[in-house]
C-alpha cells in the first residue's frame, strides 16, 4: 500500500501528539489556571491545542465545529481546573473535558459531509490539514459510530494506551479493547469495499 502524504501526515501527527514529558509541570500549570491565571491557560493551549483539535476534528468531522468545541473545552477547563484531583494525567483529564464538550455539542447530530473547497481555494493542504489527515481518512472515520470513532482517534492518532483511553472515556479497559476490535472490523470492511 502506498503511504503517500496522508500516511506521512498521520505518522507525523502521532509523533507530535505524544503525552507531555513533564506531568508535574502540567499539574503546576493547571493549578495556576485554577487560581485564575489566564497566562497558564495560554500555556495549556500551546501544549495541547493541536492534539485536542485533531481529536475533536475527528469526532465532529467539521473544522468549524471542532474549533467551536475546542473553545468550549478551554472555557470548561478555565471554569473547572480546580476540580482536577491528580487521578490521571493532565492530558488525560483535558481529553476527557474535550470529549464531554464534543458529546454535548454533537449529541444526536449525524457527522457532517466534507465541504467542497471554495472557488479559488488553495488545493494544497496546509500543515494543520495534513496533521489531521485527508478527506478519505475523515470520511472513513465518519462511518464509525461515535463510541468507536473516539477510541480509534485516541489510540491511533493520539497514541494513548488502553488505560488512558479508559480513563478519558470513563469505561473499562475491556470496553476500549472491544470498541477497537469492532472499529477495526468496520474500517477493514470500508477499505475492502474501496479496493473492489
Outline the structure in words.
- There is one protein chain.
- The model is unreliable at 1-21 and 113-132 (pLDDT under 50).
- This protein has helices at 4-16, 23-34, 38-60, 63-80, 90-106, 127-132, 135-142, 146-157, 162-169, 173-195.
- The protein is globular and about 50 Å long.
- Helix 3 (38-60) packs antiparallel against helix 4 (63-80), helix 3 crosses helix 5 (90-106) and helix 9 (162-169) crosses helix 10.
- The chain has a single domain (4-109, 129-195), classed as PhyR, sigma-like (SL) domain (Butyryl-CoA Dehydrogenase, subunit A, domain 3, Up-down Bundle).
- The chain starts with a helix and ends with a helix.
- The longest helix has 23 residues, at 38-60.
- The protein has 196 residues and is an all-alpha fold.
- Belongs to the sigma-70 factor family. ECF subfamily.
- Residues 44-107 form the RNA polymerase sigma-70 region domain.
- Keywords: DNA-binding, Sigma factor, Transcription, Transcription regulation.
- Pfam families: Sigma70_r2 (PF04542), Sigma70_r4_2 (PF08281).
List the helices and strands and how they pair.
Blueprint: H1 4-16, H2 23-34, H3 38-60, H4 63-80, H5 90-106, H6 127-132, H7 135-142, H8 146-157, H9 162-169, H10 173-195
Helix pairs in contact: 2-3, 3-4, 3-5, 3-8, 4-5, 5-9, 8-10, 9-10
CATH topology: Butyryl-CoA Dehydrogenase, subunit A, domain 3
For this structure, the quaternary state is single chain
Roughly what is the average pLDDT, rounded to an integer? Answer: 78
Structural class: mainly alpha
Number of helices: 10
What's the CATH H-level homologous superfamily? PhyR, sigma-like (SL) domain
Assign the CATH class: Mainly Alpha
Organism: Microtetraspora glauca
Keywords: DNA-binding, Sigma factor, Transcription, Transcription regulation
Pfam family, one: Sigma70_r2
Protein name: RNA polymerase sigma factor
Amino acid at each position: 500500500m502506498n503511504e503517500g502524504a496522508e500516511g506521512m501526515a498521520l505518522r507525523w501527527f502521532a509523533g507530535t501528539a505524544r503525552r507531555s514529558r513533564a506531568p508535574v509541570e502540567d499539574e503546576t500549570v493547571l493549578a495556576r489556571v485554577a487560581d485564575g491565571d489566564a497566562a497558564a491557560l495560554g500555556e495549556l493551549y500551546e501544549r495541547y491545542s493541536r492534539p485536542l483539535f485533531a481529536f475533536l476534528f475527528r469526532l465532529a468531522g467539521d473544522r468549524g465545529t471542532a474549533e467551536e468545541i475546542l473553545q468550549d473545552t478551554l472555557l470548561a477547563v478555565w471554569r473547572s481546573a480546580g476540580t482536577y484531583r491528580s487521578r490521571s494525567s493532565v492530558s488525560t483529564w483535558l481529553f476527557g473535558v474535550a470529549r464531554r464538550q464534543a458529546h454535548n455539542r454533537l449529541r444526536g447530530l449525524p457527522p457532517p459531509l466534507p465541504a467542497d473547497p471554495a472557488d479559488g481555494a488553495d488545493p494544497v493542504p496546509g500543515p494543520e490539514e495534513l496533521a489531521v489527515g485527508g478527506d478519505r481518512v475523515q470520511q472513513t472515520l465518519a462511518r464509525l459510530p461515535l463510541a468507536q470513532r473516539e477510541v480509534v482517534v485516541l489510540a491511533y492518532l493520539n497514541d494513548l494506551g488502553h488505560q488512558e483511553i479508559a480513563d478519558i472515556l470513563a469505561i473499562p479497559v475491556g470496553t476500549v479493547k472491544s470498541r477497537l476490535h469492532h472499529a477495526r472490523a468496520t474500517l477493514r470492511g470500508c477499505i475492502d469495499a474501496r479496493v473492489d
